[in-house]
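re the bet — no i am not wrong, look at it urself. input seq straight from the record:
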Amino acid sequence: MSTTDSPPLPPGAAQRTVDLAVGGMTCAACVARVEKKLSRLDGVTATVNLATESAHVVLTEPVSDEKLLATVAAAGYTAEVTGTTNAPVTADLPTQTGQEAAKEPQKQPQEQAGSSASSYQSRPEAAAPATQTPTTSTSGTGAGTARIGESQRARAEHLRSRLQVCLLLSVPVMAVSMLPALQVTGWQWGVATLALPVATWGAWPFHRSALSAARHGTFTMDTLVSTGVLAATVWSLWALLLGGAGELGMRMPMELLPRQQTDHPHLYFESAAWVTTFLLAGRYAEARARYRSGDALRALLELGAKEVTRVILTSPEGSTSSIDVLDEDGAPLPQARRSEERVPVEALAVGDLFTVRPGEKVATDGVVVEGRSAVDASMLTGESVPVEVDRGDVVIGATVSTSGTLLVRATAVGTGTTLAQIGAMVTAAQAGKAPVQRLADRVSAVFVPVVLALAALTLVGWLVTGHTAQAGLTSAVAVLVIACPCALGLATPTALLVGTGRAARLGVVIKGPEVLESTRTLDTVVLDKTGTVTQGRMTLDLEASWQLRPPQPRQPLSPETLVLVGALESASEHPVAAAVTSAARGCTDALPAVEDFRSHEGQGVTGRVAERYAAAGRPGWLAELGAPLPEALRQAVVAAEETGATVVALAVEHPHGTGLEAVAVLAVRDTLRPSSPGAVASLRDLGLRPVLLTGDNARAATHVAAQVGIAQDDVVSEVLPADKRDVVADLQARGAVVGMVGDGVNDAAALAQAGTRGLGMAMGSGTDVAIEAADIILVRPDLDAVVAAVRVSRATLRVIRQNLFWAFAYNVAAIPLAVAGLLNPMVAGAAMAASSVMVVTNSLRLRRA
């Protein structure tokens, strides 16, 4: 057992989480006991997972790691800290635009873990890192998951070795015991010699676990197995030594059902040996399946690069200060000298520069400061088409540069990277419990004591009804051996483990198991248009943009007018404003300054440019300001909107100071995501009603809806950002179970509202606020990820229900057969082992969901 040095939190400290690898758990009763012991500590909430053999502990009071480990040990299990953080796991995916990140040099590398003296210094006035990382005292989610995986693999290898020996000894025991032709003189003594090592050494894992539980006053599945094996062995030894079964010449006929009457006590060495062997085989198959069920998450976390080429810049005078080696956009100055060194990726710090050559993986999240390439993110997001990146674009760690060479500035390292955050959220989801598991937990808590009592009653019942002690003992042992709380304990966590791992490989992060239940009842999906159905990359359409120059008719937009409206919009963060500003920058060296700027949410902006007051925004809003559009411009608006454009109208102060007058309209277009039409059709195939929600005008919204196959009646347009939540709430009030898909700050309230009776799904390219409010994060930025999220979630829930049905049905059907004396203990052992293997194998089908 290892410990992690972590001082207790002071009173009032922030929430802390600790992940533990817990050894020795075999069934749901073990899970319940560890959870109960940990949760009794003040300020501790624990969730224990049998499939991953781990515990996720949330601390709100000062509790040391050593105290947690001691508590688990006191419950009779081993524990090791695999990860700890001083902040709760959140979806901190990178959301800055390339330009914002490129202009944001980070703190000096010396302040980051793993930095070296050779890294350059950042500007003293530099802003904080774009991606904040939690403070950790271990190697984090990836190392913890790998450690648990190695533990599971080692356990499987150990079980295989023990199984091989037991199988070698049990085969002759079975053959001789069941076939009278092989029962030579003294055969029973030879059988006892071969069976005793199996019932003692071979079954030692069961005996040890049962003893440990007994010392702590509790019972587990191993208590049932150990009691059954020992009962069969002790009875057989008594029969052999004192009951007459040791006489030379004794024969024992083949039978699968317990014998009711015999001339001499029956030997059950073959039952003890084969119950042990069957259960070891089941444990081995289960251990292998558990390890395989975590393949997806381990593969995801192992995607990252192992080494990186770090670039060190120095000025001709030998200075490494960023002021001397970087320009204002964060790119290397021409005179800066470069040197490279190959270092482990762990040595990379926020703010470091590193090179990515064709075919290499991007070492960590960052911003391209030099070069151009196509980046393949298929292993991370499932997106098959490489994405072109250029200077100022954000790149994600573990993606692959397929063509050109890139110089990248690191914006996140370690647990702060997108890959690590995805892994952390998937791990957290796997540690949780779906609502459907609550019944299984309640049953498991009393299962073993009830079975022990039932076995005792079975023995007594057979005796008081005039049957032999041998018949009663056989039935009681069968009851002990066939009962299987293990299947109940594995039903949910194995399905969650495989399902969430599969979703992660498809670019979908499911935040918690409770999300699965919502996908089952989901019937409506609300799609925010910009950035969800469309790509969210707005561009100005100059051919559809016009201005007035009375007394002449409308004319194409002049550079002077474009610069004016671009300057006014430059202070806004809206995508439409960004498109106008970008086009305006191409017409001038520098945009004029804006004074008295004001943003009017959902309407437009106002301000003073070159001492002239102006307003830009919705045409209807300008009319409210006293600047209605002339007929020529209204016709231009209708023509643009009917082809899907968003129109920005410009009004400027009248030369004589008599108010505003409309002078121009600008058409801004967004590109439809290629996958959107097919995804909408797939949503319909899943029984979902797609609804398009947008703040855009009705004509543009209807045009986009027609392109993707959404009915006109299912289009909600001209919705102010603050009203998106109300639209979702209204659908819910009418009985719909709503899934909301969005990506912006103004989608956060709607995403949260959807989560109250449905689901919130955020694009991973969206804002932190939207991602935080969502239940599912779509790392792959297209609607196919929505389809994958619903499909995998529903499949996972379906498998959980199948597993629980099988586990309950098996026990309900098998235990009465054992009580009635219709099952040989050996057959019972085989059935019990098969039940656990079947549950895990059924969960593995989700790898193809």
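see?? The CA atoms of residues 612 and 653 lie 6 Å apart. told u. also Residues 1-14, 88-140 have pLDDT under 50 and may be disordered. so pay up
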